[in-house]
């Protein structure tokens, strides 16, 4: 696969496939770098949507609809042939990005397998058989005599799992039990003399297991290639980008205030209680309590306040009023005022800095005496309980939130907090502290104006650049 910065056609070859792609080899394509990025980003939105759905405990039928909607929203292309290309290219791009650590591989493997499973179920029977064959699964359906020998046990299993009783023409495959661990673990299959008897509607578990096994090996091989050659060869171009991708943010730009973001100093305390996410509310409270924050806290809270609409003059007055109680006005003006003006693009390179995304907040590493970072990740359970109780989260919701935290679903924990505090669902999920603020303001306004939407539909996740050889 080659990437080109030139404005040539997106591909010089078309990947043809009559079945669901198995991603056995990289596509022989030349792709514009811009499209390469967009393809990867779109696939990440699909995988993130699946991850969020699973974390929220959606049922099987709800997940099927979710996957269909995600694919329709993000993976379609006006040209059918390009849709196939997009599918395969995006997979290989993310394979490179997610091969690099065990945690990344685990997440990517799970999400890709789940995506494959749902897509397989939506295929026609003929296409399913072809996938079955391409995976090298040469199992044949059991004969009538063997079926009759185990029929009574098959009937018992069918009744236990709530499936129709198998008729005389039912199709069952006999496979080694270790090849369908999901069915065995769920006690949804007959085990007899070391074999599992799987019904035709359960074949997806066998196929998904084979796909997962292949992809797991492929990720390990990709990691070796990345470590041994690609990372060093591309150290000046590809490597820095790829290694930073997992904390990249591609959602809305909150550097400029929105229609809900125009606040003054006198409003801050009230708004902090009603509409600040826990990370920013904690920083705000510590600032009021100690009249000081270290650099990390000043940056995280300061850029957030900028994004919610606190103007530069008000920001200087706000921070001066707090810090002067501890360090004095003269020292504040000498040591701290510059960085505030810098954040607003009025000093130094005059860059208009954006507020931190959830990914950046979560990935930070606060030290002793620091108060920045993500409370869901960095607080002890007791401190988190106390903070959530202060926000008004009830005990039942608190346990749900802590369960997400224990499973490291920090943004989902924040989403559940939002829903508990505001009594309103937020299916889009929380991906940015300033999104939390805006959605909170919308909910509060909707209680006065019922026509106002309760939660914005922001997509915020990772971005990806390239796989293979870059050419200028």
From TrEMBL:
Amino-acid positions noted as binding [4Fe-4S] cluster in the UniProt annotation, renumbered to this chain: 279, 358, 374, 414
Signal peptide (from-to): none
Domain DNA primase large subunit C-terminal: 270-437
Domain of life: Eukaryota
Keywords from the UniProt entry: 4Fe-4S, DNA replication, DNA-binding, Iron, Iron-sulfur, Metal-binding, Primosome
GO biological process: DNA replication initiation; DNA replication, synthesis of primer
Keyword Transmembrane helix in annotation: no
InterPro entries with a match to the protein in the record: DNA_primase_C (IPR058560), DNA_primase_lsu_euk (IPR016558), DNA_primase_lsu_euk/arc (IPR007238)
GO terms for cellular component: alpha DNA polymerase:primase complex
Gene Ontology molecular functions: 4 iron, 4 sulfur cluster binding; DNA binding; metal ion binding
Cofactor: [4Fe-4S] cluster
UniProt remark on cofactor binding: Binds 1 [4Fe-4S] cluster.
Keyword 4Fe-4S found: yes
CDD domains to which the protein is assigned, alphabetical: PriL_PriS_Eukaryotic
Family from the record: Belongs to the eukaryotic-type primase large subunit family.
Function statement: DNA primase is the polymerase that synthesizes small RNA primers for the Okazaki fragments made during discontinuous DNA replication.
Name recorded for this polypeptide: DNA primase large subunit
Gene that this polypeptide is encoded by: LOC111460608
């Amino acid at each position: 696969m080659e990437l080109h910065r030139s404005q040539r056609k997106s591909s010089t070859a078309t990947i043809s496939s009559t079945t669901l792609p198995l991603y056995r080899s990289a596509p022989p394509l030349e792709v514009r770098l811009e499209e390469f990025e967009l393809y990867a980003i779109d696939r990440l939105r699909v995988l993130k949507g699946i991850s969020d759905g699973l974390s929220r405990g959606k049922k099987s039928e709800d997940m099927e609809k979710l996957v269909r909607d995600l694919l329709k929203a993000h993976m379609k292309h006006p040209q059918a042939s390009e849709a196939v290309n997009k599918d395969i290219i995006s997979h290989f791009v993310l394979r490179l990005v997610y091969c690099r650590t065990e945690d990344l591989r685990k997440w990517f493997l799970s999400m890709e397998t789940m995506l494959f499973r749902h897509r397989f179920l939506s295929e026609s029977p003929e296409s399913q058989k072809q996938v079955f064959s391409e995976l090298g699964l040469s199992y044949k359906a059991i004969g009538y005599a063997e079926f009759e020998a185990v029929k009574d046990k098959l009937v018992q299993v069918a009744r236990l799992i709530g499936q129709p009783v198998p008729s005389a023409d039912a199709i069952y495959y006999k496979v080694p039990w270790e090849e369908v661990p999901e069915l065995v673990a769920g006690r949804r299959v007959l085990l007899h003399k070391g074999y599992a008897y799987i019904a035709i509607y359960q074949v997806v578990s066998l196929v998904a297991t084979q796909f997962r096994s292949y992809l797991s090996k492929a990720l390990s091989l990709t990691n070796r290639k990345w470590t041994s050659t690609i990372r060093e060869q591309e150290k000046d171009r590809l490597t820095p980008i790829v290694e930073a991708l997992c904390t990249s943010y591609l959602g809305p730009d909150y550097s400029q205030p929105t229609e809900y973001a125009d606040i003054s100093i006198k409003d801050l305390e009230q708004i902090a209680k009603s509409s600040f996410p826990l990370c920013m509310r904690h920083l705000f409270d510590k600032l009021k309590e100690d009249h000081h924050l270290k650099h990390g806290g000043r940056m995280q809270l300061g850029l957030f306040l900028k994004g919610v609409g606190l103007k530069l003059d008000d920001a200087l007055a706000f921070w001066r009023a707090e810090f002067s109680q501890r360090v004095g006005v003269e020292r504040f003006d000498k040591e701290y005022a510059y960085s505030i003006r810098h954040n607003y693009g009025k000093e130094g390179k005059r860059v208009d800095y954006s507020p931190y995304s959830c990914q950046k907040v979560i990935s930070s590493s606060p030290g002793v005496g620091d108060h920045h970072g993500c409370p869901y990740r960095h607080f002890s359970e007791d401190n988190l309980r106390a903070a959530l109780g202060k926000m008004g989260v009830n005990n039942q919701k608190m346990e749900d939130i802590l369960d997400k935290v224990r499973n490291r679903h920090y943004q989902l924990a924040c989403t559940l907090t939002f829903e508990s505090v505001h009594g309103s669902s937020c299916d889009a999920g929380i991906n940015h502290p300033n999104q939390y603020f805006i959605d909170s303001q919308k909910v509060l306004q909707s209680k006065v104006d019922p026509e106002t939407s309760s939660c914005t539909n922001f997509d915020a996740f990772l971005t990806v650049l390239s796989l293979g050889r870059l050419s200028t």
